[in-house]
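Appendix B, record 7
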Amino acid sequence: MKSRRFIITEIRERQDNEFLFGCSERVVACSEFQRLLSFLREHGFNVVSIDDRCLPKDNNADRLVGYKIIKEVEDDKGMGN
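Structure tokens (predicted):
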């Protein structure tokens, strides 16, 4: 049986809503993760850090990092109604 091989002939820039992470990256420290948070905020989501004292530690006794994402609700009734 022949194996199918492909040659990439076109490379494109990532789109604004595409986010790429390397396997060995510390995700919360990389610029791509910060770009993801900015994208969410620009599209009506509020991103709040979870207090690290509320989070468990991993196998290396390092604290985890957490975020709470909240969709901002648009109030079309106006203020006071």
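Remarks on this record: The chain is about 15% helix and 10% strand. Strands lie at 45-49, 67-71.
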